[in-house]
Specification:
The chain has twelve helices and 15 strands. The chain has helices spanning about 5-20, 35-50, 95-110, 135-140, 150, 160-170, 200, 240-255, 295-315, 335-345, 360-365, 395-410; strands spanning about 30, 55, 65, 75-80, 85-90, 120-125, 185-195, 205-210, 215-225, 265-275, 285-290, 320-325, 330, 350-355, 370-375. Strand 2 and strand 3 (about 65) form a beta hairpin. The longest helix is centred in the C-terminal third of the chain and has 22 residues, at about 295-315. It is elongated and about 80 Å long. The two termini are about 20 Å apart. The protein binds zinc ion.
């Protein structure tokens, strides 16, 4: 097999996809179910149809494009990622895994490969939490990781529920029908930019992911007492923002005390009410993110943090309520898929290293119903989620080539 990636076409397609944006170039904003997102989906579906793939959409908009194998009853091999982009993001996050996956399939077709198992490209709905406050909505539902009652109660910031958004986007039907059974896929591989600096720093062409870190997100409500900034004297204050400041530092301390470099914690949102210079903050909402590749260690950090919150609440006489948005287990990648990816890279003399994914991806949830692995390509400076996000055509070509090799190998297997 002498696989060739049509990098000129793939680059053009990535550029065209980036033009479906609600922000001026080079920034990309493509929030799930926006008009722009729906137009971008049509573009991808057309490309898939042109490649002879059979396209299906489910009730939440996950899109599947299947290259039917010679033994179509066997569980398929899946690949894919997402095309939604947070406000003011770049053009490579997720999209490389979708368009690269498609080009991998086309490269195999051009080479005359006839896979035994079907190979299915997946475009996941709402990997980014922008609209509904929870990441990986589509893959959570596919893998049964999200309670259906919780899914139906999801709303955007304006209070418009998920079901209404589905109607707007014309993805109707019962959410129960989204979940795929165990064994639907014999394996799933996601190609993605690294979103970190290691591959570039090491001068390595590819990263084969061995584990995906376990994310947890929390929303914290702090309720104190407001009042006039001049009139209420300090001994009488129950300032919600001062408590929030302590709580933010308490998270940092709990994370640092874990003693492991893999434990990270971030407070990314601090909303202050009423937000006036001469008014004591009465209410604060914090949103926090804690991750680790070790679930037990992450959970013990969370337990320590909760204890600190209680102590701060009592001492400052404020009410603190902690809402767990999600606390997901980490995923270990599958040894056989890891080997197939490493073999694919070796066949083209591409250097590759094993690594952990600290960002989470749809593969974290696909791991609940299928063996998974991920393939990372370097991105400049490790930058992501910003307009100057960049992966070189060479890096994209290397990733797509190795993905194609792995897909061919995995799809040829009988069991
Ligand atoms: Zn992504």
């Amino acid at each position: 097999m002498n696989l060739k990636i049509n990098i000129a076409q793939l680059s053009t397609e990535l550029e065209t996809l980036a033009s479906f944006s609600d922000a001026p170039a080079p920034a990309v904003t493509r929030v799930v179910f926006s008009e722009t997102d729906l137009r971008a989906r049509c573009y991808i579906k057309d490309l898939c149809a042109n490649a002879g793939l059979t396209v299906r959409e489910d009730a939440v908009g996950n899109t599947f494009a299947r290259w039917i194998g010679s033994d179509p009853e066997l569980p398929a091999i899946g690949t894919g990622s997402h095309i939604d982009a947070i406000p003011n993001a770049g053009r490579y996050d997720g999209t490389v895994g979708v368009l690269g996956g498609l080009e991998a399939i086309r490269a195999l077709q051009r080479e005359g490969v006839r896979p035994r198992r079907s190979i299915e490209l997946v475009l996941f709905t709402s990997e980014e939490p922008t609209r509904f406050g929870i990441g990986c909505l589509g893959s959570r539902l596919l893998s049964g990781a999200l309670d259906l009652a919780k899914a139906s109660s999801l709303k955007d910031k304006e209070g418009k529920p998920l079901d209404e958004w589905r109607e707007t986007a014309r993805f109707t039907g019962d959410l129960r029908s989204v979940a795929l059974p165990q064994g639907h896929y014999a394996g799933f591989v996601e190609l993605h930019i690294e979103q970190g600096p290691l591959l570039e720093q090491h001068g390595t062409a590819l990263g084969v992911v061995t584990a995906i870190a376990a994310p947890a997100s929390l929303r914290i409500w702090i309720e104190g007492e407001g009042g006039h900034a001049g009139a209420v004297l300090m001994p009488n204050r129950r300032d919600a923002l001062c408590a929030a400041a302590e709580i933010t530092l308490a998270l940092e301390a709990a994370v640092r005390n874990s003693g492991a470099v893999d434990t990270v914690g971030t407070t990314g949102v601090c909303d202050v009410f009423p937000g006036a210079i001469n008014s004591i903050p009465v209410r604060v909402r914090l949103e926090m993110d804690v991750r680790d590749i070790d679930e037990a260690r992450r959970d013990s950090v969370l337990a320590r943090f909760r204890a600190s919150c209680e102590e701060i609440a009592a001492r400052r006489r404020v009410a603190v309520r902690i809402e767990m948005i999600n606390a997901d287990p980490p995923a270990a990648c599958d040894k056989q898929i890891i080997a197939a990816l490493a073999d694919g890279a070796a066949r083209h003399r591409l250097s590759c290293e094993h690594m952990v994914s600290r960002a989470y991806h749809d593969s974290l949830f696909m791991a609940r119903i299928a063996p998974v692995a991920m393939l990372f390509i370097p991105c400049r400076g490790g930058f992501s989620h910003r307009p100057d996000e960049f992966a070189s055509p060479e890096a994209i070509m290397n990733g797509t080539l190795s993905l194609a090799e792995a897909l061919a190998e995995l799809a040829a297997r009988g069991n």
